[in-house]
Amino acid sequence: MRGADDALVRRALNERDPLPGTAGFAGEIDGRLVRDVLGRQPLFSEREDPSVWSFDHRDLTDPVAVPSGQSRPTTGDDAGRAEQVWTLPAPDVATDAEEALAQVRAAVFESVDSVDDDGLAVAFSGGVDSAVVASGVPDAPCYVAGFEGSHDIAAARDAAGAMDRDLRVVELTHEAIERAVPEIVAALGRTNPMDVQIVLPLYLLAERVAADGYDRLAVGQGADELFGGYAKVAKAPNDPRVEAETVRGAAREMILTLPDQLERDVLTLRAAGVEPVAPLLHDRVVEAALPLPDELLVADGRRKVALREAAKPVLPESVAEADKKAVQYGTYASRELDRLARQAGFKRRMENHVQQYVESLVE
Questions:
Q1: Alpha-carbon dihedral 270, 271, 274, 279, rounded to 10 degrees
Q2: What is the pLDDT of residue 363?
Q3: Segment Disordered: which positions (predicted)?
Q4: Crossing angle for the helix pair 193-211 and 333-343, nearest 10 degrees?
């Protein structure tokens, strides 16, 4: 079992408690494969033989992911028959904004302050998410990746200066991208360009972290989903990319995408040689975020309101309020992967030209 001890997982199973106080777990217990409600630990089994399983799909011949929140017997007549044990709670909306904000502040800083900094580095983009994580481990070095001139490098330099933190820049190159893409595809089992673009800078940053002697990487994953960080959430219900009629409903839609995203991110970081640490995805933070009303998620175009307000006593205001771009755009990974594809003859008029380029590198 990864992420929790057996006794805690047994209790969560018996009580069907989806948020039992962990940062995620997965593995085998009492003849069953289990994976937590947000899929924070990837888990796979053989399609036809659930008794054969692994945390890495590359160890298996015909792997399938165990869906989040499920329990699957590994032997006997019920082998492979899934049971949905845990589902994401749907608490009533908080009516006391001050109390809701206090709950977020307590949960976030209990989580980040409890991170052990032994062998730890921080993935630092200069946004409020990674800055909050970095605040809990003041002696850990911060790393940012990107092409020179990119938004993320500039933002990270500004934030590190404001916070008086050591910042190490991992400058991306075309040669590094061409080398890394096949390694990423192998780790993920995916050639989807968006997935590859998102994890490219993360993979190359994590490689540098591992080369520098650190084996754990603290990340801000989960903050955008939990606290309303996406433009499509802010625009709900008028954005066709979400089905919800409210900002809060749209944020919940994003939270439900986490299992697939986290499988991608965790497998990438492990392939690069580090173990991810994601304090903002601890159960206590999830529990505090779920009841937030619309106005503590998005207000007057300002996203992640509750997280920014919670961070203000700890971070410089310029950092707590910093805008953030999606990593594939903020690092120029998306732009430069597209450039490489076109240079290799995969023009934009061609269908899925970047994916064709990715597949050509794998071949």
A1: -40
A2: 85
A3: 54-82
A4: 110
Which ranges of the chain have pLDDT less than 70? none
Q: Residue 77 contacts by C-beta under 8 Å, 6 or more apart in sequence?
A: none
Whether omega for the bond prior to residue 91 falls within 30 degrees of 0, making it cis, is no
Assessment of whether the complete model's pTM goes beyond 0.85:
yes
pLDDT at position 82 is 85
Q: For residues 217 and 141, is the Cβ–Cβ distance under 8 A?
A: no
Cα–Cα dist 151/166, whole Å: 18
User: How far apart are alpha carbons 144 and 128 in whole angstroms?
Assistant: 14
Q: What is the pLDDT of residue 225?
A: 97
Over its C-alpha atoms, the chain yields an Rg (Å, rounded) of: 20
259 in Cβ contact with 39 (< 8 Å): yes
Token pair listed for 23? 């940062």
Tokens 């044990």 belong to residue: 85
Provide the pLDDT for residue 331.
Answer: 97
Question: Which of 326, 286, 322 lies closest to 303, judged by CA?
Answer: 322
Domains of the chain: 6-84 (no CATH), 97-334 (3.40.50.620)
Q: Which residues pair with 276 in a beta bridge?
A: 217
